[in-house]
Design a protein that fits this description.
It is globular, with a radius of gyration of 18 Å. Helix 2 links the parallel strand 2 and strand 3. The longest helix has 21 residues. It is built from 10 helices and 9 strands. The protein is an alpha/beta fold.
């Protein structure tokens, strides 16, 4: 029987690239995201690779929907070998400009969404004494970035949770891995939140990000998918992806310089 992987945020970008890579490695898939039409397109590509793909539209902010996701996955396959937490949202703007609703939306998606899937699947993995949980974080979970405060808060939370769970669950047969990419060339700005001192400021932040994503040094979703596979196959506690290694090294050596540069870059 083929091993199985469940991926959240699987309809596009990193999630889609990871789904196709695992399918090519012989895995059957569970694909979760909010938009069923996009998931269906990914499932059709996976089926062309002679692998199974179960589509379960899910909003990870809702624990009841997540429980339904896990229940349907186990009903279909009997076991889930790998969970890849990937669903997330990006935000940018001055910290004082975010509403409480926006704070809660980001936290509920980027952090609580991961908690919901882990809470639902962990009893199954503990009962089997095997499994892998991969949390896709960000370099923003290791390096504080001005004007990304809500995003940083969630990603630092994911980083701490991942490290603690790796230590606790390893003796129980469950591998937990964190993935730390930099900006990735995907369509994530279409669902991102941009705020500012006025509408023009918010629009300029979106435009700035889109310009950065068109530069040649920005990694592709396939680079992150390869990192996820590497983390699972080689039982790594974390994988820092591509240019994120440079960002982390620079911050560790020259934190003041990096913070100054980041403030100048993202201030307007």
């Amino acid at each position: 029987m083929a091993p199985t992987v469940l991926i959240t945020g699987a309809s596009q970008g990193i999630g889609k690239a990871t789904a196709l890579l695992f399918a090519n490695k012989g895995y059957d898939l569970v694909l979760a995201a909010r938009h069923s039409d996009r998931l269906t397109v990914v499932a059709q590509e996976i089926q062309k690779l002679d692998r199974q793909a179960l589509v379960v539209p899910t909003d990870v902010k809702d624990p009841d929907q997540v429980k339904n996701l896990i229940d349907k996955s186990l009903e279909q396959y009997g076991a889930i070998d790998v969970l890849v937490n990937n669903a997330g949202i990006y935000v940018s703007g001055p910290v004082e400009s975010f509403s409480l609703e926006e704070w809660h939306h980001v936290i509920d998606t980027n952090l609580c969404g991961y908690v919901h899937t882990i809470h639902a699947i962990l009893p199954h993995m503990l009962a089997r004494s095997k499994g892998a949980i991969v949390n896709v974080s960000s370099i923003g979970g290791k390096v504080p970035i001005p004007y990304l405060a809500p995003y940083n808060a969630t990603k630092f939370g994911v980083t701490g949770m991942t490290a603690a769970m790796h230590s606790e669950l390893k003796p129980k047969g469950i591998h937990v891995c964190g993935i730390y990419p930099n900006l990735i060339k995907t369509s994530f700005p279409e669902r991102a939140i941009f705020t500012g001192h006025d509408d023009a400021d918010a629009r300029s932040r979106r435009q700035q990000l889109e310009e950065i994503l068109h530069t040649p040094f920005v990694e592709k979703p396939e680079d992150v998918a390869t990192a996820i596979w590497d983390g699972v196959k080689h039982q790594k506690a974390e994988v820092v992806v591509g240019s994120a290694n440079l960002a982390q090294t620079a911050y560790n050596l020259f934190p003041g310089v990096v913070q100054w540069f980041s403030r100048q870059t993202f201030k307007k």
